[in-house]
Amino acid sequence: MTIRVAVAGATGRMGRLALRLVEEADDLDLHAGLDSRSALTDLDGADVVLDVTHPAASEGIVRHAVAQGIPVVVGTSGWSADRITGIQAYRREFEAPGAVVFVPNFSVGSVLGTALAAYAARFFDSIEIVEAHHAGKVDSPSGTAVRTAEVIADARGDLPVVAPHADQRARGQLVAGIPVHSLRLAGLSAEQRVVLGGEGETLTIAHSTISPAAYEQGILLALRRAPEAEGVVVGLDALLGIAMPGADAS
Protein backbone atom coordinates (compact mmCIF):
# COMPACT_ATOMS: atom_id res chain seq x y z
CA MET A 1 0.00 0.00 0.00
CA THR A 2 1.28 3.47 -0.88
CA ILE A 3 1.41 6.00 1.98
CA ARG A 4 0.39 9.54 1.01
CA VAL A 5 2.70 12.00 2.76
CA ALA A 6 2.10 15.72 3.38
CA VAL A 7 5.29 17.63 4.21
CA ALA A 8 4.87 20.85 6.21
CA GLY A 9 8.01 22.93 5.88
CA ALA A 10 8.76 21.61 2.41
CA THR A 11 11.06 24.51 1.47
CA GLY A 12 13.40 24.10 4.47
CA ARG A 13 16.49 21.92 4.76
CA MET A 14 14.73 18.94 6.30
CA GLY A 15 11.66 19.48 4.14
CA ARG A 16 13.66 19.30 0.92
CA LEU A 17 15.35 16.15 2.16
CA ALA A 18 11.97 14.60 2.98
CA LEU A 19 10.60 15.47 -0.46
CA ARG A 20 13.51 13.67 -2.11
CA LEU A 21 13.09 10.61 0.10
CA VAL A 22 9.36 10.43 -0.62
CA GLU A 23 9.98 10.77 -4.35
CA GLU A 24 12.58 7.97 -4.33
CA ALA A 25 10.56 5.53 -2.17
CA ASP A 26 8.28 3.04 -3.96
CA ASP A 27 5.84 2.88 -1.03
CA LEU A 28 5.52 6.66 -0.44
CA ASP A 29 3.68 9.28 -2.48
CA LEU A 30 3.67 13.07 -2.03
CA HIS A 31 0.21 14.31 -1.12
CA ALA A 32 1.22 17.94 -0.57
CA GLY A 33 4.26 20.08 0.12
CA LEU A 34 3.43 23.07 2.33
CA ASP A 35 5.33 26.31 2.85
CA SER A 36 4.57 29.28 5.10
CA ARG A 37 1.86 30.54 2.73
CA SER A 38 -0.02 27.25 2.46
CA ALA A 39 -3.38 26.59 4.09
CA LEU A 40 -3.50 23.90 6.76
CA THR A 41 -6.36 22.29 4.87
CA ASP A 42 -3.76 21.22 2.29
CA LEU A 43 -2.87 18.51 4.83
CA ASP A 44 -6.33 16.99 4.67
CA GLY A 45 -6.54 13.62 2.97
CA ALA A 46 -2.94 12.62 3.69
CA ASP A 47 -2.12 9.29 5.33
CA VAL A 48 0.62 10.93 7.41
CA VAL A 49 1.88 14.47 7.98
CA LEU A 50 5.56 15.27 8.46
CA ASP A 51 6.06 18.55 10.34
CA VAL A 52 9.54 20.02 9.89
CA THR A 53 8.68 23.70 10.25
CA HIS A 54 9.64 25.94 13.19
CA PRO A 55 8.46 26.16 16.82
CA ALA A 56 5.95 28.96 16.23
CA ALA A 57 4.11 27.09 13.48
CA SER A 58 4.45 23.51 14.66
CA GLU A 59 1.71 23.41 17.29
CA GLY A 60 -0.96 24.67 14.88
CA ILE A 61 0.01 22.03 12.35
CA VAL A 62 -0.06 19.25 14.94
CA ARG A 63 -3.42 20.34 16.33
CA HIS A 64 -4.93 20.50 12.83
CA ALA A 65 -3.67 17.01 12.00
CA VAL A 66 -5.02 15.67 15.32
CA ALA A 67 -8.42 17.27 14.72
CA GLN A 68 -8.56 15.65 11.28
CA GLY A 69 -7.47 12.25 12.61
CA ILE A 70 -4.28 12.26 10.52
CA PRO A 71 -1.14 10.66 12.00
CA VAL A 72 1.62 13.22 12.31
CA VAL A 73 5.38 12.93 12.67
CA VAL A 74 6.81 15.99 14.43
CA GLY A 75 10.43 16.72 13.59
CA THR A 76 10.30 20.35 14.69
CA SER A 77 12.31 21.35 17.77
CA GLY A 78 10.90 23.14 20.78
CA TRP A 79 8.58 20.43 22.09
CA SER A 80 9.18 20.04 25.82
CA ALA A 81 7.49 17.40 27.98
CA ASP A 82 4.94 19.98 29.14
CA ARG A 83 3.95 20.93 25.58
CA ILE A 84 3.65 17.28 24.60
CA THR A 85 1.37 16.71 27.59
CA GLY A 86 -0.85 19.47 26.19
CA ILE A 87 -1.13 17.61 22.88
CA GLN A 88 -2.01 14.41 24.73
CA ALA A 89 -4.92 16.22 26.38
CA TYR A 90 -5.98 17.79 23.06
CA ARG A 91 -5.92 14.39 21.38
CA ARG A 92 -8.12 12.89 24.13
CA GLU A 93 -10.56 15.76 23.67
CA PHE A 94 -11.04 14.83 20.00
CA GLU A 95 -10.80 11.08 20.66
CA ALA A 96 -8.52 11.21 17.62
CA PRO A 97 -7.42 7.95 16.01
CA GLY A 98 -4.21 9.29 14.45
CA ALA A 99 -0.95 8.94 16.37
CA VAL A 100 1.40 11.83 17.11
CA VAL A 101 5.06 10.81 16.86
CA PHE A 102 7.54 13.36 18.25
CA VAL A 103 11.06 12.83 16.88
CA PRO A 104 13.61 15.27 18.35
CA ASN A 105 16.30 13.75 16.13
CA PHE A 106 15.96 11.42 13.14
CA SER A 107 19.56 10.20 13.47
CA VAL A 108 19.90 6.65 14.78
CA GLY A 109 23.34 7.50 16.19
CA SER A 110 21.91 10.44 18.12
CA VAL A 111 19.19 8.25 19.63
CA LEU A 112 21.78 5.69 20.71
CA GLY A 113 23.91 8.47 22.23
CA THR A 114 20.96 9.65 24.31
CA ALA A 115 20.24 6.10 25.46
CA LEU A 116 23.86 5.56 26.49
CA ALA A 117 23.90 8.87 28.35
CA ALA A 118 20.72 7.95 30.21
CA TYR A 119 22.21 4.63 31.24
CA ALA A 120 25.47 6.20 32.41
CA ALA A 121 23.67 9.02 34.24
CA ARG A 122 22.67 6.69 37.05
CA PHE A 123 26.33 6.42 38.06
CA PHE A 124 27.36 10.10 37.99
CA ASP A 125 25.99 13.07 39.94
CA SER A 126 27.62 15.82 37.85
CA ILE A 127 26.17 16.03 34.32
CA GLU A 128 26.13 18.77 31.70
CA ILE A 129 25.14 18.86 28.02
CA VAL A 130 26.83 20.88 25.28
CA GLU A 131 25.03 21.03 21.95
CA ALA A 132 26.13 22.85 18.80
CA HIS A 133 24.28 23.53 15.56
CA HIS A 134 24.56 25.66 12.43
CA ALA A 135 24.09 29.40 12.79
CA GLY A 136 20.64 29.31 11.16
CA LYS A 137 18.99 27.12 13.82
CA VAL A 138 16.49 29.42 15.51
CA ASP A 139 15.75 27.52 18.72
CA SER A 140 17.94 26.68 21.68
CA PRO A 141 18.38 24.40 23.47
CA SER A 142 17.85 21.91 20.67
CA GLY A 143 15.01 19.41 20.84
CA THR A 144 17.61 16.65 21.07
CA ALA A 145 19.26 18.26 24.10
CA VAL A 146 15.90 18.78 25.80
CA ARG A 147 14.96 15.16 25.16
CA THR A 148 18.36 13.96 26.43
CA ALA A 149 18.07 16.01 29.63
CA GLU A 150 14.54 14.78 30.29
CA VAL A 151 15.48 11.13 29.72
CA ILE A 152 18.52 11.49 31.97
CA ALA A 153 16.33 12.98 34.70
CA ASP A 154 13.86 10.10 34.30
CA ALA A 155 16.68 7.57 34.53
CA ARG A 156 17.97 9.13 37.75
CA GLY A 157 14.54 9.25 39.36
CA ASP A 158 14.74 11.01 42.74
CA LEU A 159 18.51 11.54 42.50
CA PRO A 160 19.19 15.21 41.68
CA VAL A 161 22.03 16.27 39.41
CA VAL A 162 24.63 18.57 40.97
CA ALA A 163 23.55 21.84 39.35
CA PRO A 164 25.29 25.25 39.34
CA HIS A 165 24.44 28.00 41.80
CA ALA A 166 21.60 30.31 40.79
CA ASP A 167 23.99 33.22 40.16
CA GLN A 168 26.15 31.24 37.71
CA ARG A 169 24.19 32.32 34.65
CA ALA A 170 26.96 31.34 32.24
CA ARG A 171 26.62 27.69 33.24
CA GLY A 172 23.77 27.02 30.80
CA GLN A 173 19.98 26.75 30.90
CA LEU A 174 18.63 24.18 33.34
CA VAL A 175 16.47 21.59 31.59
CA ALA A 176 15.02 18.97 33.93
CA GLY A 177 17.68 20.10 36.40
CA ILE A 178 20.58 19.58 33.97
CA PRO A 179 22.69 22.46 32.57
CA VAL A 180 22.51 22.69 28.77
CA HIS A 181 24.90 24.89 26.78
CA SER A 182 23.99 25.84 23.19
CA LEU A 183 26.37 26.94 20.43
CA ARG A 184 25.20 28.32 17.07
CA LEU A 185 28.12 28.59 14.68
CA ALA A 186 28.78 28.79 10.96
CA GLY A 187 30.42 25.64 9.61
CA LEU A 188 28.60 23.24 11.95
CA SER A 189 25.82 20.78 11.20
CA ALA A 190 24.87 19.21 14.53
CA GLU A 191 26.77 17.93 17.54
CA GLN A 192 25.97 16.95 21.12
CA ARG A 193 28.22 16.04 24.03
CA VAL A 194 27.00 14.76 27.38
CA VAL A 195 29.76 15.17 29.95
CA LEU A 196 29.42 13.16 33.16
CA GLY A 197 31.77 13.77 36.08
CA GLY A 198 32.67 11.63 39.07
CA GLU A 199 35.45 11.33 41.60
CA GLY A 200 38.71 11.35 39.63
CA GLU A 201 37.13 10.77 36.20
CA THR A 202 34.86 12.09 33.47
CA LEU A 203 32.90 10.30 30.78
CA THR A 204 31.92 12.03 27.54
CA ILE A 205 29.28 10.63 25.19
CA ALA A 206 29.41 12.51 21.90
CA HIS A 207 27.57 12.39 18.61
CA SER A 208 28.29 14.42 15.48
CA THR A 209 26.20 14.78 12.34
CA ILE A 210 28.39 15.47 9.32
CA SER A 211 25.79 15.05 6.58
CA PRO A 212 21.98 15.18 6.25
CA ALA A 213 22.22 11.56 5.13
CA ALA A 214 22.27 10.72 8.85
CA TYR A 215 18.55 11.57 9.03
CA GLU A 216 17.33 9.53 6.06
CA GLN A 217 16.82 6.18 7.80
CA GLY A 218 14.93 7.78 10.68
CA ILE A 219 12.65 9.89 8.46
CA LEU A 220 11.64 6.89 6.38
CA LEU A 221 11.10 4.72 9.44
CA ALA A 222 8.87 7.34 11.09
CA LEU A 223 6.77 7.91 7.96
CA ARG A 224 6.22 4.19 7.52
CA ARG A 225 5.45 3.44 11.19
CA ALA A 226 3.30 6.45 12.09
CA PRO A 227 0.12 5.31 10.28
CA GLU A 228 0.14 2.12 12.40
CA ALA A 229 1.26 3.73 15.68
CA GLU A 230 -1.11 4.50 18.56
CA GLY A 231 -1.34 7.44 20.93
CA VAL A 232 1.49 9.89 21.51
CA VAL A 233 4.96 8.48 20.89
CA VAL A 234 8.11 10.36 21.91
CA GLY A 235 11.47 9.59 20.36
CA LEU A 236 12.74 7.55 17.46
CA ASP A 237 13.88 5.05 20.09
CA ALA A 238 10.27 3.91 20.54
CA LEU A 239 10.07 3.01 16.84
CA LEU A 240 13.49 1.31 16.90
CA GLY A 241 12.73 -0.74 20.00
CA ILE A 242 15.47 0.96 22.04
CA ALA A 243 14.62 1.11 25.73
CA MET A 244 15.49 4.43 27.37
CA PRO A 245 16.33 3.80 31.05
CA GLY A 246 13.54 5.16 33.20
CA ALA A 247 11.75 6.87 30.27
CA ASP A 248 8.06 6.59 29.42
CA ALA A 249 7.92 6.65 25.64
CA SER A 250 4.19 7.13 25.21
From TrEMBL:
<comment type="pathway">
    <text>Amino-acid biosynthesis; L-lysine biosynthesis via DAP pathway; (S)-tetrahydrodipicolinate from L-aspartate: step 4/4.</text>
</comment>
<feature type="binding site">
    <location>
        <position position="134"/>
    </location>
    <ligand>
        <name>(S)-2,3,4,5-tetrahydrodipicolinate</name>
    </ligand>
</feature>
<dbReference type="GO" id="GO:0050661">
    <property type="term" value="F:NADP binding"/>
</dbReference>
<feature type="binding site">
    <location>
        <position position="37"/>
    </location>
    <ligand>
        <name>NADP(+)</name>
    </ligand>
</feature>
<dbReference type="InterPro" id="IPR000846">
    <property type="entry name" value="DapB_N"/>
</dbReference>
<feature type="binding site">
    <location>
        <begin position="143"/>
        <end position="144"/>
    </location>
    <ligand>
        <name>(S)-2,3,4,5-tetrahydrodipicolinate</name>
    </ligand>
</feature>
<feature type="domain" description="Dihydrodipicolinate reductase C-terminal">
    <location>
        <begin position="111"/>
        <end position="240"/>
    </location>
</feature>
<dbReference type="InterPro" id="IPR036291">
    <property type="entry name" value="NAD(P)-bd_dom_sf"/>
</dbReference>
<feature type="domain" description="Dihydrodipicolinate reductase N-terminal">
    <location>
        <begin position="3"/>
        <end position="106"/>
    </location>
</feature>
<protein>
    <recommendedName>
        <fullName>4-hydroxy-tetrahydrodipicolinate reductase</fullName>
        <ecNumber>1.17.1.8</ecNumber>
    </recommendedName>
</protein>
<keyword id="KW-0220">Diaminopimelate biosynthesis</keyword>
<dbReference type="GO" id="GO:0008839">
    <property type="term" value="F:4-hydroxy-tetrahydrodipicolinate reductase"/>
</dbReference>
<comment type="subunit">
    <text>Homotetramer.</text>
</comment>
<dbReference type="Pfam" id="PF05173">
    <property type="entry name" value="DapB_C"/>
</dbReference>
<comment type="similarity">
    <text>Belongs to the DapB family.</text>
</comment>
<feature type="binding site">
    <location>
        <begin position="103"/>
        <end position="106"/>
    </location>
    <ligand>
        <name>NAD(+)</name>
    </ligand>
</feature>
<dbReference type="GO" id="GO:0009089">
    <property type="term" value="P:lysine biosynthetic process via diaminopimelate"/>
</dbReference>
<keyword id="KW-0457">Lysine biosynthesis</keyword>
<comment type="function">
    <text>Catalyzes the conversion of 4-hydroxy-tetrahydrodipicolinate (HTPA) to tetrahydrodipicolinate.</text>
</comment>
<dbReference type="InterPro" id="IPR023940">
    <property type="entry name" value="DHDPR_bac"/>
</dbReference>
<dbReference type="InterPro" id="IPR022664">
    <property type="entry name" value="DapB_N_CS"/>
</dbReference>
<dbReference type="InterPro" id="IPR022663">
    <property type="entry name" value="DapB_C"/>
</dbReference>
<keyword id="KW-0560">Oxidoreductase</keyword>
<dbReference type="GO" id="GO:0016726">
    <property type="term" value="F:oxidoreductase activity, acting on CH or CH2 groups, NAD or NADP as acceptor"/>
</dbReference>
<dbReference type="GO" id="GO:0005829">
    <property type="term" value="C:cytosol"/>
</dbReference>
<keyword id="KW-0028">Amino-acid biosynthesis</keyword>
<feature type="active site" description="Proton donor/acceptor">
    <location>
        <position position="133"/>
    </location>
</feature>
<feature type="binding site">
    <location>
        <begin position="9"/>
        <end position="14"/>
    </location>
    <ligand>
        <name>NAD(+)</name>
    </ligand>
</feature>
<keyword id="KW-0521">NADP</keyword>
<feature type="binding site">
    <location>
        <begin position="75"/>
        <end position="77"/>
    </location>
    <ligand>
        <name>NAD(+)</name>
    </ligand>
</feature>
<feature type="active site" description="Proton donor">
    <location>
        <position position="137"/>
    </location>
</feature>
<dbReference type="GO" id="GO:0051287">
    <property type="term" value="F:NAD binding"/>
</dbReference>
<dbReference type="Pfam" id="PF01113">
    <property type="entry name" value="DapB_N"/>
</dbReference>
<dbReference type="GO" id="GO:0019877">
    <property type="term" value="P:diaminopimelate biosynthetic process"/>
</dbReference>
<keyword id="KW-0520">NAD</keyword>
<keyword id="KW-0963">Cytoplasm</keyword>
